Amino acid sequence: MCSVTVEGEPSLNAICHCSSCKRRTGSAFGWSAYFPDDKVVAKTGDMLVYAKDGPSGYNRFFCARCGTTLYWKSFGFLPDQTGIAGGCFAGEPLPAPNISSSESGRCDWLPLPADWLTAP
Questions:
Q1: Which one, out of 47, 48, 70, 91, has a CA that is 20 to 30 A from the CA of 64?
Q2: CA dist 14 to 1, 96, 116, Å?
Q3: How high is the pLDDT of residue 20?
């Protein structure tokens, strides 16, 4: 099994409705928690990487055994932070996200709390 260990609270806890996050999760959105790189204290297990080149590119690291995406590094968005899939915190769940990004891609049937921040 693969795992990622972090310290502290995420600097960003959000869901994203872009097509890339939808494909990554196989769901209506992706849940991402971003931590400063120095707060990511351990990465264990046999991982493979999926790389997308370019200014909006990234490296996504996933478990070689089960295919679960654990974390990623983006080249343009928050380059000094590591994004971790919200589902990786199953044992000690994160607080509810409070930001919704790529709202233009949100499924019409998916309501969100009125107090969440949104980004186009």
A1: 91
A2: 25, 8, 9
A3: 92
Residue 6 tokens read as 């972090």
First-last CA distance in the chain = 36
How many angstroms separate the CA atoms of 43 and 110, rounded? Answer: 33
Rounded to 5°, angle at Cα 22 from 33 and 35: 10
C-alpha 5, offset from chain centre = 14
CB 17 within 8 A of CB 29: yes
3-state SS class at 64: coil
E strand map for 30-102: 30-36, 40-44, 47-52, 58-63, 69-74, 81-85, 99-101
pLDDT in tens, 56-113: 899 999 999 999 999 999 998 899 999 999 999 988 899 999 999 999 999 999 999 9
Whether the pLDDT of residue 33 is over 90: the answer is yes
